[in-house]
Here is the input.
Amino acid sequence: MADKKIISCAITGATHTPTMSPYLPVTPDAIIEQAVGAAQAGAAILHLHARDPQTQRPTAELDIWMHILKSISAQTDAVLNMTTGGSTFMSIEDRLRAPLAAAPELCSCNMGSMNFGTYMMKEKFKGKWKNDWEEDYLEASRGAIFRNTFADIEYIMSSLGEKGTRFEFECYDVGHLYNLAHMLDRGFVKLPMFVQIIVGTLGGIGPGPENLNFMKETADRLFGKDYRWSVLAGGRHQMNMATMAATMGGNVRVGLEDSLYAGKGKLATSNAEQVRMIRTVMENLSMEIASPAEARQMLGLKGADQVAF
Here is the structure.
């Protein structure tokens, strides 16, 4: 089992807006449908954000979250990984409201504050917006800070840890790995750790083999063999960085939260399409794909029968 690879799929996120792709799931029912499809295609972990059915904006509304979680879990045994990042514009209280109520097996945990810039995306869609809020939403990231202070991280780890939730530690830059090591030293982190190395996001470390190698080498120095790792890359770098990670012994994350494309200039028609793409690459390289049950064992998760949804 140690050699099997976990595929995570991030279904919608809070970065892309409805205008950017007709295939981006921006309502609860669309999120549910695409999440189930991604699991059927081979994703053992589904990373989830919620969106409002009317406005299509990211939301922290508990009733919407519970509808999404219950509906997906009724149709698949995939691990449901809830965001604690929410969006740059949510308070830490809003970001944790649904995870604390749902007590999932797995949550994301962002390991540092950063400038998370999405404002450049609006240049491509001037005057073509489906919703009035989209352009201002993207532009607001120019002056916003994605807040994840040490106090925030402590709160996330302690409050969700009490419920048996484990974490996907999202590290957008080298300093985030050192922040994670600091929290490990202080006893906030339980092993085995699941570290998500993120490259190619404006505000974090850039894409490319040299940056991925540096992040992995730094993690090795800090954590030794006491962690499992995965890679996600933003935009057009998604598949090549995921392939590189897999060949280096890591796990992978794909999904429309991270990239809207399935090849140069070709919009992905679903999250499942991206899962099938990376799965094909990995299986052609003689790699075995982990099932949800195997992913739970590899990451030390509490089990789907221990959640509150």
